[in-house]
Specification:
The chain is built from no helices and eleven strands. The protein is mostly beta strands. The mean pLDDT is about 95.
Length: about 120
């Protein structure tokens, strides 16, 4: 039974910080690329950040570069997204996702195998 259980979302003022967590179970976490995606009302789903199996490689959307940090703890089967200097434009439902990684790291692909339920992040002005 695959599960991706997210936590850490909520309401924060512009300039503030949040840390999202995604607890994974039911699959071999350390063999999967992990990613964060988001979707704002009326907009398409957007890639936010990705991380390779051992956390050596990371990738970020231009809009969050230098503000967000993705990390993982394979011993705890947990993915994180540290979000600093939040802006109202960051308001969205955030999803964690997992994709079995082959020989290359392709984090921006939407073809992930498993998806979490999403957690709401709201940034007020």
């Amino acid at each position: 039974q695959v599960q991706l259980v997210e936590s850490g979302g909520g309401l924060v003022q512009a300039g503030g910080s949040l840390r999202l967590s995604c607890a994974a179970s039911g699959f071999t976490f350390s063999t999967y690329t992990m990613g964060w995606f988001r979707q704002a009302p009326g907009k398409e789903q957007e890639f936010v950040a990705g991380i390779s199996r051992r956390g050596v490689q990371t990738s970020y959307a231009d809009s969050v570069q230098d503000r967000f940090t993705i990390s993982r703890d394979n011993a705890k089967n947990t993915l994180y997204l540290q979000m600093d200097s939040l802006k109202p434009e960051d308001t969205a439902v955030y999803y964690c996702a997992a994709r079995l990684q082959g020989g290359s790291f392709v984090p921006r692909s939407p073809k992930y195998d498993y998806w979490g339920q999403g957690t709401q992040v709201t940034v007020s002005s």
